[in-house]
Amino acid sequence: MKSAAFTLILFFCGCSSTYTVESTDKANKKIGNGAVTIISNTGQEFDAREARITDDSIHFFDDDSNDIRTLSRGDVKSIQRVDHVVGAVEGMILIGVSCGAIGYILASTSGGSGGHPGGAGLGTVFGGAIGGAAGLLIGAIDGHQYTYEFAQDSAAVNTK
Asked: What's the first-to-final CA gap in the chain, in angstroms?
């Protein structure tokens, strides 16, 4: 039962990582040129590409307006990037293992003394395979979210 609850939590919460931007060079490498969401301190969200962080501002191509924009770093709360490949691998492993455990428990408790001798093993394999396939799909769709947060005092941030 604990495995079922764990699987549901993973399904609804997904996986994410949060980092504080301490180096503009490192953050620019991690963010890359792909699609990101820039969130301002007021909660406004910008769907963007090619975001570049400097000591005092963030430059990006705004997908909604098709313009190049610049925001002050003090006005930006965070930048979010989603990696669907990492999400697929995490989903396959985490949900596959959880469903394998559920399959083992169900197969070993439902057969009683007259159950199939390999029932627990088969339950583990089938549960893991079905859960892994479902986790792969769910993880690929949701992805792994990386959030890069900015310190309030951006003057204290290192550039290297």
From this structure: 48
